[in-house]
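--- STAGE predict ---
source: upstream dedup step, 1 unique chain passed
mode: sequence only
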Amino acid sequence: MAETPIAASLRRHGLLSLPRASTEALLESQMRIGLFGGAGSVPMLPTALCPFGPLPADTPAAVLLADHETFSVALVTWTDRGPEITERDSFPMPGLDYPSPWEDLIYLAAELAEPLIRQAAGACFCYALPAVPAGRDLSALTPPLRISGAEGRLLCASLTAELAGRGVEERPLVALDDACAALLAATVLAPDADRCLGLSWGRDVRLSLAAPRAAIPKLTGPGSDQGFVLLNTGVAGFTGLPVGDADLIVDRDAGDAGKNLLRKAAALPNLGETARFTLLKGVEDGLFTFAGGRALLGLTHLSFEAVDELLRDRENGLLTTLCPAPEDREAARGLCTAVCRRAVDLTASALSAALRLTGGGRAPCAVVTGGAEHTVLLPMLRQALPDVALETPEDAVLIGAAAGLLRNL
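--- STAGE serialize ---
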């Protein structure tokens, strides 16, 4: 069968379908290296939190959620009807539109959280952005946030001190990311699943799993063979994947060349730009009409939202408008589908590797959050993982973060 022009362009520029079996095996090996504390590209960071256990009824937990846009708080209580979420509030995230000192972040957290913490058994700070965990605490918030004076500061410790200055009695505070919260939500909302994962797929790609403490050689000391540990895999740092011409441009522009290749290949902002460069290569290869090619050459940025609109056949989408001719639209859809398919295969490989690492399971469940669950990527991911229940419950991060606190009081 003759190769289509779209397939020839993809092959010429290195955007080939991902070899799932070998990618899964390589990801699993990198995860195992991380469990031993080796210098792999998937660090496997333990949270010092237990992922399983009963949830005390009628015991409120305060949840503080920081993402790329807002700082939100809520009170979560388990009742006989399930988790009940009340007293929501939010404020724009400092350090995003303008640089902010560490003290402003702590002041804002205390302002929003103080009324809730006075009612709660404790609080969980959940972060849906790149950060450096430190056991049950958080030691750094990394770009795109611009928070000065954060070096060497622990967020939960700083917040505890701020609240103490306001006369608030000290209560337990823990920190975890939104992928870990998604896993904890899976343990609550899918109790029959024998393996649970948490996936945050949006501006970044974060994956969490639970493993027996005895299976993590780098955790030593008294009681090190007891119970399960919740881990942030750090899978965004994986580097063992083939790169094409568009990937090299995205990698160069990111400022950390050769690192975090999974993030660059699958995170939504990078997917938009990878699609743009792939379309431009298609213009070079003559896949578009003169008018369509000229319109695409005028693009200086492409969001994943525009790619999603094209693949969902939204008539007023940016790429649909730029490519009104049927042949241009077909070429754009074919190239963008290939970009998304590779990202899906890579994410599916990471999930499969995590399940293999933890023993597979007969009825695995993964809760997906972060934004990709609202796009064309979720049905593609479900097709790639037919044996895994991919759930997208409302308020999963809030529910999981509360469970993470209440199980570790």
